[in-house]
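This entry is retained here.
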Amino acid sequence: MPWFTDLANFLAHGVVIEGMTTQQKKKFFRDVGRYVWDDPYLYRVGGERILRRCVSRKEGLEILKHCHEGLTGGHHGHHSTAQKVFDCGFYWPSVVKDALKFVKKCDPCQRTGNISSKDEMPQNPIQVLEVFDVWGIDFVGPFPLSKGNRYILVAIDYVSKWVEAQALPTNDARVVLKFLKKLFSRFGTPRALISDRGTHFCNTMLEKALQRYGVTHRLATAYHPQTSGQLENANRGVKRILEKTVGKSQKDWSDKLDDALWAFRTAYRTPLGTTPYMVVYGKACHLPVELEHRALWALKMVNLDLTEAGKKRYFQIHKLEALRDAVYSRSLSIKEKTKSLHDRSVGYDY
């Protein structure tokens, strides 16, 4: 029987299991207050009164598989995977523990480990106030040929951690300029662009274009990739997702890139306290697993009334600024703590 059988029986029919001690009864009735019965499903009331559908551990493991290695999974760590389960609207008591076990048994995850650090310098965090004000840009590759492409051009917004990427056949100035024009047309002209000192970024063609748009071009310190640390993390994140999802021939990576970006944008980011998708759009990104396993949103909250949907979206957009302010404060606080710990660990505590 599912773990929530006793709770469901009490809330649906008022049936209390017999033979409980006084201590067990106190705990049972205390726990009941955290659940809501809406026939035929039981929901747990989470923080900010968010309802998550209670599922059996068996169904939970299927959901976990979707959230870790499915289309929008991305093979993230156990914390991000468990958070994605919660964001999708599901709950069972051992979510985090099961996510940890699942990640440890995931073969692609175990084959790709972390990169060790060496000879590190003190950190100097880059803190930006407005979304899409500062972008970092870099090439990743070369990769095995995939539909004529060998490189990935990656750009990340320094506030929302929103990532854009495109598979490209070459890594020259022409493709960079074309990519940036498309980026600016979607997100507006930024104040600054941060890149390394490669010839594909440091050339007359690009400098003239950025000058025409009024964008300041900042260059990373030579042989010091930590200058654009957020971008390096994004590169590593996208690359790891592709490593764990491509076929044996490794020639289908360009087809998997859009799915990797979807997974990256909907993964929980600790500095943000939410997902990049939420920071940009002010609403949750609904994933296929929510429809397949009947999350609350799919059962009750699909609103086809355009007037009501418009009102809801209106309030979401008005809350967006408050959300971004909270993200900024949290990000600044975490960066300061991280800098302090990092500098102390490398012997620069002064």
Notes: Confidence is low (pLDDT under 50) at residues 115-121. The first strand starts at residue 35 and ends at 38. The beta strands are 35-38, 41-45, 51-54, 90-91, 134-140, 151-157, 163-168, 192-195, 216-219. The chain has two domains: 4-112, 134-293.
